[in-house]
Write a structure and sequence with these properties.
The structure is a homodimer.
Chain A lengths: L11 H10 L8 H10 L1 E5 L4 E3 L7 E15 L5 E7 L4 E2 L13 E14 H10 L1 H27 L2 H12 L8 E4 L4 H7 L4 H15 L2 E3 L2 E4 L2 H9 L11
Antiparallel strand pairs in A: 1-6, 2-6, 3-4, 3-5, 3-6, 7-9, 8-9
Helix pairs in contact in A: 1-2, 3-4, 5-7, 5-8, 6-7
Chain A binds a DNA duplex (30 and 30 nucleotides) through helix 7.
Chain lengths: ~250, ~250
DNA sequence: CTTTCCACTTGATAAAAGTCAAGAAACTGC
DNA sequence: GCAGTTTCTTGACTTTTATCAAGTGGAAAG
């Protein structure tokens, strides 16, 4: 129940509208979404907020409406591995649907975000009731696993500059034709860890990429004059070819 | 287990018995399994056999009964990234259930294997019909995604000797108490690529591990006198602690 | 028994990435 | 606009891993 957050929580109708726009919920009827909205909460979270830590029990699924959230694991030695960074249209915490009471990772907001949480038992029930919805959840999980497979490949066969190139290419997939101007969606430090490298390495690798492909960087803004050149440099060390779907 | 089947399909009853033992099929009734067996095929495959290549359309799900199968991706430059190596109780090709016509990876037998194939449409139908089965498939996919998350973490925060240590610890999870004697389930070259390193690096890293933790190696046989020492050396660079499930 | 082949090891060297430290640039809050 | 903090960059150096090349050893075939 969201009555606890009068300042932050939106009306159920607003929440229901947001839920209707989630791709995952396409197979659901309005009555079902209304039921979800009844127990859901919408909250604005500031950069730096920790949504939950690893190893803590968790009962909720989190839908990102805007902003960016980092999922990460931390070792005893203090090293951090960023597993994913999510934005609008993505969700997380769905691991709980498979009986994991504890989250296997922590979640931290890296750019101011709006997030809807839904108790996971509601989704679990609906999966059993509606096999179309179950299939949608399965397909989503499958897509995520494939993304992880790609990530493993990237980290074994691509160099640091190539991984950055791949990251940039994903950002300019909508844009067509040179030149492309884009800006990094979150701090370079986070991008670095997202790509499995140290911030210093990121900085140097970006310089290398600049020399190799003629792109220009100023702060968080990147201008790509020649996308093809970037594709040639980057995608030679990959099993799929640009434009690669997720 | 090591019965040598001719390279032709076994009787349906035999296949059905094998299917009954698959953990994934626990929620299914015998009549359903009989239907699967009707269209399934059991085949003995030799080391080196290629089951399918990446980018080829595929209509089947593969269940490994014995032996080992490597799933891998290859880049234009010829580098290979091993995504997973599977044995009895595992299956693959289930990506097809989510509408991918082409396999995103290739599959090669790395130790003589017995494999059952089932047309994927049968499973797809059953997922829609039986939500318990759908949930089982979802849970399996979730487990796989978590494994990939772990893999990504390992490759970013563990050194080569530590990754080998982690691999060995997974192999001796059943064994309790020192000393543990085990032998590598497949060629060292494959283990190396499975762990994301070159064979030369594997060889040297194993020597390092030997010096650090006092284990002994002769060919494919590894003797661990002090498991705790190995755990201390390896698991300090990991977010979970031994014995880690999966 | 010997030849052949393949998997593995070892050595020398190069390349890539991490670490530590210092400085520059960008952003914040007054 | 300025002080202070954070983020990013750069330099010097170390460590780790890859690469290339030459062996070694063991299993299978003749």
């Amino acid at each position: 129940m969201n009555a606890k957050f009068p300042a932050m929580s939106a009306s159920k109708a607003v929440i229901q509208n947001h839920l209707r726009l989630q791709p995952l919920f396409k197979p659901l009827r309005d009555e079902t979404l209304a039921g979800f909205a009844e127990y859901a909460a919408l909250k604005a979270e500031k950069k730096g907020a920790v949504l939950f830590s690893a190893e803590t029990p968790n009962e909720k699924i989190y839908f990102v409406l805007s902003g960016w959230v980092k999922l990460f694991r931390e070792t005893l030695a203090g090293d951090e591995a960023v597993v994913d960074v999510l934005t609008a249209g993505n969700f997380f915490g769905e691991i709980g649907l498979s009986g994991h009471d504890e989250m296997p990772y922590g979640a931290e907001v890296v750019e101011d975000a709006e997030i809807i949480t839904i108790p996971r038992f509601l989704l679990a029930e609906e999966i059993m009731r509606n096999s179309l919805f179950g299939m949608a959840v399965l397909q989503n999980m499958t897509r995520q696993r494939l993304q992880r497979d790609m990530e493993i490949e990237h980290r074994t066969v691509q160099s640091a500059p190539q991984r950055i190139g791949c990251f940039l290419l994903k950002l300019c997939r909508d844009n067509t034709g040179d030149p492309v101007v884009l800006h990094l969606p979150y701090d370079k430090t986070v991008v670095a860890h997202r790509l499995g490298m140290q911030p210093e390495t990121f900085s140097r690798a970006l310089s290398k990429l600049r020399e190799e492909t003629g792109l220009r960087v100023r702060g968080a803004t990147v201008e790509i004059d020649n996308v093809k050149k970037l594709v040639d440099y980057t995608c030679s060390a990959c099993s799929s070819s640009f434009p690669c779907e997720d």
